[in-house]
Amino acid sequence: MPETIFSVQLFATCLVDAIRPAAGLATLRLLERLGVKVIVPSGQTCCGQPAFNSGCLADARAMARYTIDLLEKSSAPIVVPSGSCGDMIVHRYRELLADDPAYASKAERVAARTYELSQYLSDVLKVQDVGARCRRTIAYHPSCHLLRGLGVRSAPSQLLDSIADARCVSFPGAEDCCGFGGTFAVKMGEISSAMLDRKLDAIVESGADTVVACDAGCLMHIEGGLKRRGSNVAVRHLAEVLVESE
Amino acid sequence: MNSTPMSFHQRVSHALADGQLRVALDRTTERFTLNRVAGLASLPDADAVRDRARSIRLHTLSRLDEYLEQFEANVTSVGGQVHWASDAQEANEIVLDLARSRSVKRVVKSKSMVSEEIELNQALISGGVDVVESDLGEYIIQLAGETPSHIIAPAVHKTREQIGQLLADKLGVPMTDDPVEMTATARSALREVFLQSEMGLSGVNFGVASTGSLAIVTNEGNASLTVTAPRIHVAMMGIERVVPTLDDLAVMLLVLARSATGQKLTVYTDLLTGPRRGDPDGPEELHVVLLDNGRSRLVGTEVGEILACIRCGACLNACPVYQQIGGHAYGSVYSGPIGAVLTPSLDREGPWHVLPEASSLCGACREVCPVRIDIPRMLLALRAETVRSGKANQWVRIGFWLYRIAATKPWLFRCGVSMVRQLTKMFFVNGWLLRLPSPLSSWTQSREFPVIASRTFSEEMRDREEGSGDE
Question: Whole-model pTM?
Answer without folding.
Answer: 0.95
